[in-house]
Amino acid sequence: MERDFSKGKVSSNIIAQAIPLILAQLVQLLYNVVDRIYIGHLPGAESTALTGVGLVFPLTTFIAAVTFLFGTGGAPLFSIARGAGEEKRAEKILGNTFSLLLYAALVLFVLCYVFRRPVLYLFGASDASYVYADAYLKIYLFGTVFVMISTGMNGFINAQGFPKVGMLTTLIGAVLNLILDPVFLFVIRLGVGGAALATVISQIVSALWVIRFLTGKKAVLILKKENMRVERKLAREIAGLGMAGFMMQGTNCLVQVVCNATLKIYGGDLYVGIMTVINSVREILSLSVNGLNSGAQPVLGYNYGAKKYDRVKQGIRFMAYLGTGYTVIAWILVLLIPHFLISIFTEDAAMVSQGVSALRLYFFGFFFMAFQFTGQSAFTALGYARHAVFFSLLRKAIIVVPLTLALPRLGFGVDGVFLAEPISNAIGGLACFLTMYFVVYKRLGREEET
Description:
single chain, mainly alpha, globular
């Protein structure tokens, strides 16, 4: 019964899923943030080391995008199949997703490793920052297979009703990363490459944990060899639904590249480093609402598959109310303690001083993000792949990128780069939510009546 999301209060099911996922994502955040914190405080490196690691973000984000293509495509389909009682189909989805992630990871590793130098300069590296970027990236890439398997397949653990086990996936690896980082950086003195090595080791452990659970006796549906042969039709379904997650992360990658390149022109390495800090703060403050929406997706998908449409509507309302309340609080927090948030990542006086105004601009009207999250999650959970893809593209590729390029040239300078984000949040977030309301939410009411 505890794995049946059609029973009990919808809000309770979502919270039961979301709390472990939020904790898991908090720990997952340590993979990324702890490296930046330690690197930002490396003696003698000043802001250049942090800037160098920031230049790696677009590539790591693209790896995450490909992971989302299959992981966030497979897990909702898996939940819908489970809700409809189609266990054989669900197991095939599980096996096919694993194979797709594995093959994609191998291709990405080779391409990114071979072309890392021209790519980093394209992303805005200077001769000074490239040294740190390359030292980090050439080691980090060896963990590509492991990070894609652990992140992409962990959703199937959560979709089977084991969010605590899913939390342990990231907890084990991130705690290990937290321990290894200072050892490699400050004791053995491996520099930024030491931070990358700590991350790779942690990713290996996390991936082994996920595989062990999905092939073990505790899983409701297990990963079987006979289901790993990729079926074209099923692969298209997985990639079709996961395209929204891919586009969201892929456009994040595009935005990061454009932002870094533009900031390099108008502000230099200092402002590329400031954007690295701001992205880190955003990851922290988006954590809870991301966890809420991740927890809601299997619940929405299961009830949709079971034709419990009123429960789906309850879940959407719950996401919207709670998400909006949280993002308002997060915005207020940025306004009250910007110096503290930036100083977590760096002691550089210039970066802290210039970063405060940039942070406030970037987070203006942050609550609009709740509308984007709610609409995007509902589209993805219920299989509205085209809508999810479109609104992923709208906010980032169609709004943010042109504004990032245009506003600095219209006299706003570096401030224009940071203003592009709140403008896109308002326009893209409202458009996504309102479309979801009229296309999905209203339709659920009509189907319930019939």
